Every structure is written in C-alpha cells, then in structure tokens.
Amino acid sequence: MSIEIEPVMKSRGIVARALFPSHMTRFAIAAALTFFPDVLMYPLEYPAPELIALSAWIWAFPSRLGFAAFVLAPFIPNPTYGYWAFNLFCVQASLSIAKAATSSSTWAGEDLGKAHKPLRLYMFVTLGICFLQVITDPGPWVALFPHMRLEPGRGAGLRLEPSQIGSLLGIYLLMLVGALTRVRTSAGAIKNTTAYVREGAAMIVATVVLTRSLTVLIVACCFLPGLFQVRRKQIALAASVGIVCLGITYMVFGDRLEVAVAT
Q1: 10 Å Cβ neighbour count for 190?
Q2: How far apart are CA 7 and CA 127, in angstroms?
Q3: Is 175 inside a domain boundary?
Q4: Structure confidence by residue, pLDDT tens digits, 230-256
Q5: Do 192 and 245 have their domain in common?
C-alpha cells in the first residue's frame, strides 16, 4: 500500500523534489507541526491544526490509503456529518501512516538515527518552554495563547494541557528506542548505548517533573523495557534505580496519589 517516493526523486526533476523533498525533511516538518501547533499554525483552531499535522505525516509517509483519506476532507465542515468525517479521516490517516512507515524501504538503515536528532531538539525546546511556564506561573502564556489551559506549577509546552506532552514524549522515545536497538548491534555499542540511555532517562525525568502528569508517567513506563535491557548482573543496579524512581514519583505525585486513594 505504500508509495515509494525516494528512489525516483532524482529522475523526476525539480517539481518532484519540490513536492517531495528528502524523507528526513518531510519527517522533520511533520514532527515540528505536531510538537508546536499553537506557534506554527496560530491562529487556526480545532480541528484545523490536527488535520494539517496528519496531512503532513501522510506527506512524510505517503500511501494510497493515506491519499484516499482526503476524499473525506470536503465533508468535515458539514454540521451533520463533519464529526464522523473528521474521526474517520483521523483513523484512516493514522492507519496509513503506520502501514507506510513499517513497510517503507526508505525508513531503514540510518533513518532511525537521523529521525531521532530533530525529535531530540524538539523535546529540548518543549521542555524549555515548560520550564519557563513553570517559573513564570503562568506569565504571558495565556495572553499569547488563550486556548491553552494551565494549572499552577505545571508547564504545558504550548499545548492545551500538560498530559498532551505524553504523545510528544512517546514519539521521541519511539525513535530513541529504535535507534538504540540498532546501536546495540553495531560497533562502539557500549559507548553509544550508554549515551542514548542517559539521554532517554534524563528526558523522561525532566518531562515527568515539569508536567506532573500521570499520563506522561504511564507513557514513559511503557518505553522503559526497551530503554533498559536488564541482565542478571544488572539486577542490583535496576533495583536501585527502581527505588530512586519510586522516591521521585512519590515526591512529584505524592499529594495527588494520596487524594486519589482517599477519594
């Protein structure tokens, strides 16, 4: 179902290269629209940013199924069928993106490592914004982005709600674990693996602390098995890390967990 664009780009001339630049360029643009929609697509309101971001991902991972989803686009503004057309578009687009990404021959080799680099930059910028939102509390952010909801001491990273950063963290960790899996079987694996694991652990801790979101914590836990490959000799280290993580979790979520249990 996927359409391979990359192999024929050089033979299709300037038009093809303009419509379909390099695979990593399309990926970086789609990811940027996903990470910073309130900035890059302001003042568009729901569901326009979501549709544009999904369209960009179809552009990054083209397929017949993905292009067929655009047949539903004219029905989305309709007050009667718009809701169903929008949801069907999202489902069909998501399935097509996943199918094209897993079957594309261009999404192999060094692509995972290259894709990890822009996502790492986007996460750094997002966490930087979160930190500024936390210390300004909420400062000028709500005035600049009135659709954003903030709670005291919780950064939203220019998203509607702090827990939505969980999806951004998931995209980043997906690429990180993929790149880490490849590195573990390559030369210099020990040094590179350690750097990746430290980066992932630091990003997880920073995101959880800044957002104080249980959703973000759950997303992070889902990727921990892929991030840390525990061997028998590492059981003691893993146990120590686990105890430290539990302590941090209690410090960050202790008050919320106590209220939840009491309720």
Answers
A1: 9
A2: 37
A3: yes
A4: 554 555 566 666 677 777 777 777 777
A5: no
